[in-house]
Design a protein that fits this description.
Elements lengths: L9 H19 L6 H16 L3 E2 L6 E2 L1 H18 L6 H24 L10 H16 L5 H16 L6 H14 L5 H14 L13 H11 L3 H10 L7 H6 L6 H12 L4 E2 L2 E5 L9 H12 L4 H18 L5 E2 L2 E2 L3 E2 L2 H8 L7 H13 L1 H6 L1 E2 L1 H5 L3 H16 L3 H7 L3 H28 L4 H26 L6 H16 L8 H11 L3 H19 L37 H22 L12 H14 L3 H16 L14 H12 L5 H17 L1 H7 L3 H15 L3 H16 L8 H14 L10 H11 L2 H10 L13 H15 L4 H13 L8 H17 L5 H17 L9 H5 L5 H8 L61 H7 L47 H12 L12 H13 L1
Antiparallel strand pairs: 1-2, 3-4, 5-6, 7-8
Helix pairs in contact: 1-2, 1-3, 2-3, 2-4, 4-5, 4-6, 5-6, 5-7, 6-8, 7-8, 8-9, 8-10, 9-10, 10-12, 12-14, 13-14, 13-16, 14-15, 14-16, 16-19, 19-22, 21-22, 21-23, 22-24, 23-24, 25-26, 26-28, 27-28, 28-29, 28-30, 29-30, 30-33, 32-33, 34-35, 35-38, 37-39, 38-40
Amino acid sequence: MPGRTLQVGAATLSDKIATQVPRIFEQAQNSLANHQKNLVALYKLQTEAAQCTEETRNRRGVRLVGEKIFEEAILQMLTRVLSLKKGVTPADRIVKFIGGAAYELAALEQQNQEGADEDDDTTASRFTARLLKFFFKGFLSKDKNVRYRILQSVAEMVSHLGLVDEEVYSELRSSLMDRINDREVNVRVQAVIALSKLSGTEGPSEEGEQTVQDLLSDIIKHDSSADVRRAAALNFPIDETTIPAVLDRTRDTDTTIRKLVYSAILEKNVTVGGDDRMMGPTHPRALTIAQRELIIRNGLGDREPSVRAAAASLLGRWVDVVGEQPAKLEGKENPDVKVENGLVELLKMLDLTEQKYPVDAVLSIFTSRPEIFQTMTFGHDYWQNLTPETAFLARVFVEHGMATNDDARLEAVLPVVTELAFRIQDTFNELTSRIDDEEEARLMTDLSEDERIQYEDARLEKEAIIGELLQLAVNLDYSDEIGRRKMFQLVRDMLSQELLPQSLLNKCLDVLRKLSPSERDLIRVVVELVQDLRDWILGDEEEDPTKDADAETSSGETPGTVRAPRPNPPREQTVEEKARADAIDLKCLLLCIGMLERVNGTLDENSTLEGILEELIIPSVKRKEYVFREKGLISLGLCCLIAKDSDTNVWDLKPLAVNSARFFIEQVPSSPPSLQENLLQIVFDVLMVHEVELRKNRPEIIPFIIGELIDLLSTAASDKVRALVGLGLSKLILAGIITEEKMFLRAYKTLKKDRENLDEDEEMISPAQITTLFSDWTDPNKLRTVVDAHGKTNSEHQANMSIQLDLAVKILRSLLEENWEKDDKKVLCQLLTKLYLPDCADDDKVKELKVLMYTLCLRRPIRDTTTNNAFAKFEAAVMKKFGKQLQDFNEEEYRKLEQLEELFSFVDSIIPDEEEEEVGLDEPKRKGKKRRSDSIMTTTTEGDDVTSAGSSKRGRSKPRSKRPRLSNSDDASDDEGAGLHTPPPARTVPKRSAATKKPPQDIYVSSGSDDEDYTPASRSGRSTEHVKEEEQELDGNVTFDSIIDGDEDEEDEVHGLLAED
């Protein structure tokens, strides 16, 4: 601004500002209510300070002395706040005051200088730039509190930031993007808030440059802190491009974020400015059908009630914004139909073929908005003009009324059974008519794509209406005998129709089961239908025997059928006849599958199934066509589930289920993936149902099947098949059918191998996450919590608190006997620290755990520091938990116990790693004499500290330098070996014949006692004389020295001999 004559002295102005600015800040820190008043006072003070200027020495410019004094006073007050940690309320008020000052001062200045150009350099713009430059210095402060307050102030200022210099804006943007990676969560939160507000002012970015929106999208998905993800979600700009990133947070691990997505983001942005006539970015019409499904499925399926309530509130809001007033005709209300139009409109936006989530959506609306359910009325006009949406709504209305026992509402709005039966019959006649018209049109002319779509849409619409009415019919009251007989005959006639779509078949069977007094009656009716259909296809042109089936029946019986004699099948069939016969056979198989899924009786109780099994199911299994073989195998599997020991099949007199179990698993490798899934489901079901019969009659089948299933985990090409195998094996383990001890380790190896074979664009959880999941799944505390919640106190339902202790034993055994890679050892040792150790455990099990730990330290010592630390932590936890049980441990005594014989046999079979064997440095070199080391266990006495035997080995950086030997005289050996510096003599490798290889020698480490001449028994079964002969043979060619002094070539040779052995 132009220079002004100096009105007051700079010293006077400085004193005034030094007095008034602290007073303004003192009031601002006490309450938010006086901020506006103090901002006005601050503006007056700034205006007065702006008038204090002086000319430069060359008289070509003006110095803004007053503004500088004012800015320095403000920054001095602000500096006192920056070091205060989060949560100090006065500091938060000052930050908010400073953030508002930048905007209010600019607004007041613009108001008092009307007509000024916004691009002019003003007092307010210079003040804002000065504040930002001051804040830039604190972005890299070492004090986390300073960085937090700086970012908090910037976030407040960005909200009201006016026009700033391009250079300042670029620096601000880059500085905020750098702070996104700050190690402090609070700092990252403020950086996200500031960036989200800055994203609205961002222009087009250069090619390859990351935009603020891209950065925020990455943060909202991948930041480790829930607070940062929450801040990013709440401040994220919502539009059609950012909606997918927001919807991903409906599956966030943090409950609060999932709830806020529905309540504070989706529901808030349904409309613009609260006007229902203006669609927002989350309006149901603005979303895709996949996005609407994702919102409903994830929200109503969430495990937290608060999230489900927020999702239900969002659905209620959707109903309000898409609905209209109740239907009116010519200005008069129609009292016969009163349905919430918004609910019907919302259903039109959903995929009703997905039965689960639309039902959940309507039920949620009925629960959260009970007035909608209470005011709905279905009159004659409603049933006369059914659409898929209105039929669906009526069906869900009935289900909700039955769930809430609101019989009065159901009786008031539902039609009688006879009327509904006629409505289903009329709609089915329309469907068959449309199918005939479509077929005729295809034969007469070539239909265009639009015409085919039109015919298909009309057919699917009628099919959907019939399906909903059939599901509604299942829940009706059939005390009216006339209505019951009418509905039964209608459903039976529909099942006998060749044009009945497959999607309606199971729904008809549900109604038929409801109307049948018993399972035997249902089976009889279905078997008669199958036989009639097959007779008809095989050439019976006589009158349909089902026409007069409703002659005379009582209320407790289902109408019977008079079967016509089966005609002889034709010798030859045309292509059309063969296709028609195949279609009927396929329908008969579907009828059998649907019927078998709905019965619980046995084959003995329903002898009519034997004919179907022999004439339809078995021949279908033997057919080469995939579709018939698939349905035949499913039918055979369902027959096996209801078969008992006395039931026989057509092949031999062995039980059906027992004889077929091996057949099913052998069909898996040669079948396509979709059929593999069905076969595996059959195998798992047969094992669960007939475990006792299989173990009794064919005990070798279960191990064979389990082995094949485990092999499929690594050999199956389809991910769905492998997932199904994993799920089935888990259920078999929970049921106690699989008791294999090494199941976890085998599964771990398989999953690790799969992870190594992933493509570049594929992802999989890490081995550490796999072991963490397994530890969580087998945690006995969770099972005990569930058992206690159900009040089951008997021993049968008690949790096995030592289950993870057994797992620790299996892991230690595996570490001893298997050659695990370094990373795998690390993962397994870290898993040990996560296992639950019970307060009370069997003494033998605790002793076994200790023996295995010490054996691992001595014979398979861990060199990796991280792995060693994890193992040491587990070892310390075991000693702390079971210290009393291990006080009087004596290896020699426990070797005599029969129950530990297998353990010590396993321990003695472990060959130490060659490079890990040690001898005392002061031990004289010997020829032909080899001694084994001391016991793998250290004997503890009362008062002694229990220490790991491998603790002295850990942390050595020079494995070939001086080492303490394994004897008990460590103190003496340290003194004696201190002066031994003689270099080891050279070793000559003996020549060996290429034709024969001698077995490797067992190497024993001297115990350090020269007085004791001890020769251990050979563990590999060789005689002592044989060992001595080998030693004498090598005596002339080998100069023996300490076994820790060998070169690398000889170590490789020894390892090779051990591998050959």
